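pasting for ref
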Amino acid sequence: MAKSTTLDNQILAWLYNGTSAQGLGQNLPSGTITASISGTTLTTTAGTPAIGDLVTGAGVAANTYITAGSGTSWTVSVSQTVASESMTVGPLTNIYVALHTADPTASGTQSSNEIAYTGYARVAIARTTSGWAVSGGTVNPAANIVFPAGTGGSGTATFWSTGFASSGATQILHSGAISPSIICGSGVTPTLTTATAITES
């Protein structure tokens, strides 16, 4: 069901490796903007962010990043109200991987059906070529993704997802089924192997 094109590969390389892609450009170094936020709309009066940038500032909520936009109007991942102030923007350095007990769905977030065995946490994978291998429109982790060992609780991981934050109802980049499913609980260390794949479709 998936297609593999040069553009797909370039977009995935930018998203997961932080390398340049046609129409997207290279990651920019951290910089400063003057902006306000109303709901999920960030409006700049000085400076220009980029899609994928983390946004930090005195009144900015944690895990706020740019998901879309151009010019002076941008969409951010967390709804909030922030008066005009100086904010720091910079490229994301990690992609976070989550486990789910059911399909989080295209309209869901990384917290949708997220597994909750005792000890669970999302795993940060570097947004570089050492973290992800991109080829032919497909992304694979460069090494096995090992989640924290369970110390209690239960749950069966049937889906996984990638996103931009270590916790919370954050936007899903990609998600897919896990085969075979992973029965989690005390003494179990869930692991996604390098055969786990994301294919742009």
